[in-house]
Amino acid sequence: MGSSSYFFTSLLLVVVFNLAKGQPLVPALFIFGDSVVDVGNNNHLYTIVKANFPPYGRDFKNHNPTGRFCNGKLASDYTAENLGFTSYPPAYLNLKAKGNNLLNGANFASAASGYYDPTAKLYHAIPLSQQLEHYKECQNILVGTVGQSNASSIISGSIYLISAGNSDFIQNYYINPLLYKVYTADQFSDILLQSYVTFIQNIYALGARKIGVTTLPPMGCLPATITLFGSDSNQCVVKLNNDAINFNKKLNTTSQSLQKSLSGLKLAILDIYQPLYDLVTKSSENGFFEARKACCGTGLLETSVLCNQKSIGTCANASEYVFWDGFHPSEAANKVLSDDLLAAGISLIS
C-alpha cells in the first residue's frame, strides 16, 4: 500500500482543493466503448442490447432506467464525480440540442461494441470507428459553440476513457465458430490490438492527449460466463481469465510503445482485472455477500432484455451483490472499481 496510499492522499488533496473552488479537474470527459460505459446510446438503436427498462436503474437518481447496464451508477459515473463534474457526460445520441450540452464532454459508448468492428455489427451497435466519427462531429459543434481556440484547449485538456474488448470475446469470439475455429485467442487478441492502435492514433490526431484505457475484466468470473463455459463448476473459468491476462499484458506493452511514439501523449492503463477479481474471490472481505450469482433474475445468465420486471428472483438489495446482471457489476462494485480507476488514472490529471 505504502507509495500508492501516499499517492492517493496527495491526489485527494488536489481533488479537494480544486473542488473547493468548484472547478472540475479537467475541462471535459469523453467516453468510448461498450456496455460497461454506455449511458443510453443504444436506446436509440434497433438492437436487442438495451437496458432502458426496469429493473435497470432502480437505484439511480429518480429510480429511472437510463440505458445503463446497472442498478445505479457506472464506474465511469463515479469517475466523473471524482473529477469534480456535477453531471455525467451525456449519451451523444440522446442530445437533441448539442451545443452547450457538450462543454463538459460526451459519451459515445454503445453496448456490444468493441475494438473489432464486426462485433458491433452483429448486434447492430455502434463500432468504435463510428464512435470516433461521432466525436469528430462533436468537435465541430464545440468549435461552432465556443470558437476554435477554446475548443482546442477543451480537446487537449480533457480526459478520454475507453472501455472495450469484453464484448469482442464474450459476445463474439467464444460463441462464433467463424472466429474460434480460425484464430487462437492469442491471435484474436492481436487483431483487437491492431484496432486499438489505430483508434489511439486517430484520436491522438484529433487532439486527444490524456487517455485512460481499461483492461479486460476477469472474463471467466462473470456469472454468465461461468454458467455458459464453466461446465457446472461454479468457479471462475480459468481459460477465459488467462485470455484476459494475456490480452492485458499485450495492451500494456502496446500502450507503452504508443506513448513513446506519440509525443505529448499521456496514456494510462486502468486495471479492472485485479480489483474485480478480488471482489469475486474475496467477496465477504470486501463487504459483499454474493459473487457467483447476479442480482437480476436467477443471476446466472440474464442480461439486457432477459433482465426485466418479470424476471423471477431478482434480489431486494443489490449492494450485497458484486454483479447486477450476468455480465455487469452492481453500483456497489462500481464504486470500489472507480476508486481503483482514480488511483490508476492519477498520471492523467497531475
Automatic annotation (TrEMBL):
Which PANTHER family does the entry link to?
Answer: GDSL ESTERASE/LIPASE EXL3, GDSL-LIKE LIPASE_ACYLHYDROLASE FAMILY PROTEIN, EXPRESSED
- Into which family does the record put it? Belongs to the 'GDSL' lipolytic enzyme family.
Gene Ontology terms for molecular function = hydrolase activity, acting on ester bonds
Does Signal count among this protein's keywords?
A: yes
Q: Does the keyword Cell membrane apply?
A: no
- Can you name this protein? GDSL esterase/lipase
Alphabetized UniProt keyword annotations = Signal
Signal sequence span is 1-22
